[in-house]
Amino acid sequence: MGSRKVIAALLVLSFSSFSFAEEHTGEIIYKIKDEYRKPGDKELIKVFTPDNNVISTESYLSLMNDSGYYDYVGFNTIENEPEEFEDVSELFNVNLDPDFQKQWQHTKLETIFAWDYTKGAHEVIVGVCDSGVESTHEDLLGNVLSSGWDFVDEDNDAEPVTQHGTFVSGLIAANSMNQLGGAGVSPNVKILPLKITTSRGSTTMKKIADCIQYAADHGAKVINVSFTGVQNEVVEIAGKYAADKGALLVYAAGNQGRDRADYPDFENVFIVGATNSDDQRWTYRKFFKSGGSNYGPFIDVVAPGHKVYSTTTYIRHNNQNDEIIKYKSGSGTSYATPITAAVAALIYSINPNFTPFEVANIITQSAENIGDEYMFGAGRINAHEAVKLATKYFNQQ
User: Is the pLDDT of residue 156 over 50?
Assistant: First the structure.
């Protein structure tokens, strides 16, 4: 996405093919072409369970795909929170001094200087499609909207079932003035908490698409998805819907540490890889397993994602006998993504009328070149340079 991808943006994206995923629910998800959609039908991605006593799921897929009625047909794949990478030596309790200095990402992003322009506008909403958010966390109080939604239980209880969504939200909007546990990159914006996972951290592509649509329909200017599935065409469909509503979809590149040359370079999805404090691609090795930030031509930018420090759940997920832990450090593209989403929120705070493509271009144009584009996209993001450039563009309008 952005100026780096002009050629890719001119390509016609074909939705006429589908792939067979290894893990799926047995359901088919699909998008009806606009000319065949019933009046008043607002559901972007629909789901259907075939009767396998009549015909196989694969045959249903082929028939639907060949009918000419659909923009997209595919399996409802199972997606997950990327594997958790946690440094247990860096779990902090509430008795320690303020921990802003532990957040090395602020130095790289020059966040303090960005805050001379804006700490984020209260009117700017970031939709967090994740595991729910602990709204009563001391460092998120007042920054989490009550209008969230739970796509698993289909109710308005978006309190967390894992810590992932709370960690992501803290990187975006943890308070900066309460002298507790550090700060988000855009501490004055609001989080729209949207729960899409079970307690095991799994979801489906249908729920991800529904979440993106919901966030766009409920005023989010930025939508963060720190899950697998970035290569799925449904993500582009949902990203296009969000862009038409004025929202930028920011998505994690994945943690397998692989060359993803075969991943599509979507026009409406802003994809983020992870770096360490030395501006190198984040990688890990644990016993006989290794991985890190995926890379390839689909990457737009990279952001800090190694041992970053943020808020974690402590009310619903600590036993009475456990030490209360409110903050911790973690690694992964899951966490580089919300840091980037937060910079997008700062840009929207300069001018809420920027288009998603303008916001994406500002982020890429202001990024620091740290190496090969194939590994790092346009470079490592810089909040200060981004808001400076946003202010310049705004003043020229």
Answer: yes
